[in-house]
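#lab-general

N.A. 3:47 PM
ok so I finally got the sequence cleaned up, no stray characters, all 124 residues accounted for. can someone with queue access submit it? mine expired

B.Y. 3:52 PM
send it over

N.A. 3:53 PM
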Amino acid sequence: MKSQQEDFSIRSRIRSFRFAFEGLGAFLLKEHNAWIHFMATIVVFTLAALVGVTKHELLALVFAIGFVWVAEMFNTCIERVMDFVSDQRHPEIKFIKDLAAGAVLIAALTAVVVGLVVFIPKLF
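B.Y. 4:20 PM
back already:
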């Protein structure tokens, strides 16, 4: 019996990158929170360039920002799947969606703490 897994090919790897970029584009076009994160990302990197952060500080900022973006994208996926599963209000679906939103909140608060640790000494 042949495996469901397709053989490795450069063409299929390139296609998978195309799908990933299409997903990023759709996320930016359809999700309002993506624009909030995008603007925050621009502000943080602009401020980092203006105050002259170190390589290690920049790395911390990049990881914190990436953490928030990934959390928001997973949250969006979870919300969309739950809306697809049922359009009725259900306590378990509410719990799942609230938990995913809570994960984004924790990621965002973590990023704020990283930003404060990096920028407060440089600004004051």
